[in-house]
Amino acid sequence: MCCLFTTLVLLGPRIGGVLWWIFQPIRWEVTFNNSFIWPILGLLFLPWTTIMYVSVGFNGVTGFDWFWLLLAFLVDLGSYGGGAYGNRDRVPGYGR
């Protein structure tokens, strides 16, 4: 059950971003200036930040939009670092 939850958490924003890109390609093209490499890299490495950037960066990032981008970035960092910290007891000899 834990592996299923982890798979959904890791693949969920990526699949959601790809589906959003398929259904609203104009929004993605305008946000990333007709480039396809940045959205692909963003969805691979920082999916929550990329999705938030498309949400708030359509007309430019200003004011309170930076807060939402920072929050999404922290969620992405937490998804990478949280699993390593939570499983540190499974490595023999680590931290003892």
List keywords for this structure.
96 residues; single chain; mainly alpha; elongated
Give the terminus-to-terminus CA distance.
Answer: 29 Å
Broad structural category: mainly alpha
> What is the mean predicted local confidence, pLDDT?
85
CA-based gyration radius: 16 Å
Counting DSSP H or I runs of 4 or more residues, the number of helices is: 5
Number of strands: 0
Give the CA-based shape.
elongated
Low-confidence stretches: none
Number of domain modules: 1
Question: DSSP strand (E) fraction?
Answer: under 5%
| String of helices and strands | HHHHH
Give the biggest beta sheet. Answer: none
Helical residues, percent: over 70%
Layout of helices and strands:
Blueprint: H1 2-23, H2 25-31, H3 37-45, H4 47-56, H5 65-86
Helix pairs in contact: 1-2, 3-4, 4-5
Report on this structure.
- The chain has five helices and no strands.
- It has one domain.
- Helices cover 73% and strands 0% of the residues.
- It has helices at 2-23, 25-31, 37-45, 47-56, 65-86.
- The chain is an all-alpha fold and 96 residues long.
Short synopsis of the structure:
By secondary structure, this protein is mainly α. It is 73% helix and 0% strand. The chain has one domain (2-88).
